[in-house]
């Protein structure tokens, strides 16, 4: 199972967990396993077929946009990080 790290803003949708495990051989499979247990995460991460452009997703610290996107391979010892983009300022 891959380890999925959740940014603080996502933790309330995952029962307060900082990190959870999820099964799958691709990022898409890992995310679907995550959504089956924490449905509220789907709206924040992947409201459409593709990932939200406001969420950065990394597999082992590599941005999946520069890999194979949702088809990026994920191994049992890999770490997936979900990090919503933050904006602010004046």
Automatic annotation (TrEMBL):
Recorded coiled-coil stretches: none
- Membrane-spanning residues: none
Q: Which domain of life is it from?
A: Bacteria
| InterPro entries named in the record | Beta-grasp_dom_sf, Mopterin_synth/thiamin_S_b, Sulfur_Carrier/Prot_Modifier, ThiS/MoaD-like
What is this protein called in UniProt? Answer: Molybdopterin synthase sulfur carrier subunit
What is the native source organism of this protein?
Tengunoibacter tsumagoiensis
